[in-house]
Write a structure and sequence with these properties.
Jelly Rolls; 49% strand; 143 residues; 4-stranded antiparallel sheet; 5-stranded antiparallel sheet; mainly beta
Length: 143
């Protein structure tokens, strides 16, 4: 039987001017899928300002991090309202049996499928002289 958990928050709704990382959260080992939702409600930024949103997992409970999704790269002069959805199928076959861990450098729009470690977090990378982005990032688990 498939069950949806309540929606959990990685980044609460708010305006951010600089890069930051969310607190680490533990997810159940029985996770079948992880659904990630980015809700951007304002981009008060200039051309060239960017927001990159990553979801990461950790093999060692938070000492090192590996990107599993680069949900979006958003430009400051783009839409002020934007919704992005990414789904990680944790039961899918591993995409690559051997790859280097990457920390905030996975290609924009990429989502790695396959098993993930049970410690996750989000990281937003904000660049630009006048960057100001208002957003929330949440997730829901299917198990």
């Amino acid at each position: 039987m498939t069950t949806l958990t309540p929606i959990e928050t990685l980044f609460a709704a708010g305006t951010r001017l600089a890069s930051e990382e969310s607190a680490a959260q533990n997810i159940p080992r029985a996770t079948k899928s992880l659904i990630i939702f980015l809700d951007l409600t304002d981009a008060q930024a200039a051309h060239g300002d960017t927001l990159d949103m990553y979801v990461q997992h950790s093999p060692d409970h938070g000492s090192s991090w590996d990107d599993i999704a680069h949900v979006a790269q958003i430009f400051g002069d783009g839409a002020d309202s934007l919704h992005k959805l990414a789904t990680i199928d944790c039961e899918a076959a591993v995409e690559s049996e051997l790859r280097a861990m990457v920390d905030k450098s996975l290609l924009a729009g990429s989502v790695l499928q396959g098993p993930i470690f049970p410690t996750i977090r989000a990281a937003c990378v904000i660049a630009g002289a006048t960057a100001s982005f208002t957003f929330a990032l949440t997730y829901q688990i299917i198990h």
